[in-house]
Amino acid sequence: MLTDFREISAILKNSRTIAVVGLSPKENRPSNQVARYLQSAGYRIIPVNPGQKEILGETCYPSLLDIPEPVDVVDIFRRPEEVLPVVEQAVKIKAKTVWMQEGIINEEAALLAREKGLTVVMDRCMKIDHASLL
């Protein structure tokens, strides 16, 4: 599990495009709150939710494979047992980092991502880390 704050800080500084998998259109949901915060901090947010057309003013895609531009970070808001297929897609689109939000731990998915050269952050909140490190 990545807890090197220099590495987390580098990810946050060097990443510009974040695909948020499981982004909810509901403002009270953590995924929406985190994505709004990251958007206000200057990141390009790409919503991934098969049930939506647009969230936070951005086109929403049914899967990572449908996104027509490069993605730096895949920020995952899914149950741990649903993470592996998301990581497989992250590998296919050549994302640099897979970030599993607070409470989400999937060692099998993390191992796959690391084997394919992706940086893995697990069980951490991107909003909290950004606010405290940058």
Quick take:
This protein is of the alpha/beta class.
Pick out its properties.
134 residues; alpha/beta; Rossmann fold; two-stranded antiparallel ribbon; 5 helices
| Average residue pLDDT | 95
Structural class: alpha/beta
Assigned CATH architecture: 3-Layer(aba) Sandwich
CATH class placement: Alpha Beta
Distance between the termini: 21 Å
Helical content class: 25-40%
> Total domains, how many?
1
Per CATH, the superfamily is: NAD(P)-binding Rossmann-like Domain
Low-pLDDT sequence parts: none
What summary fits the major beta sheet? Answer: 5 strands, parallel
In percent, how much strand structure appears in the residues? 15-25%
Principal-axes geometry comes out as globular
**Order of helix and strand elements from N to C terminus:** HEHEEEEHEHEH
Number of helices in the DSSP assignment: 5
